[in-house]
Amino acid sequence: MSEDVWTEERIRALGVRMDAVDAVRAVHGCGKTRAYEALRGGEDLGFRVLKLGRRYVTPTADVLRALGLEQQPAPFAAVRPLRGEPGAA
Question: Considering only Cβ atoms within 10 Å of each terminal Cβ, which end of the chain, N or C, has fewer?
Answer without folding.
Answer: C
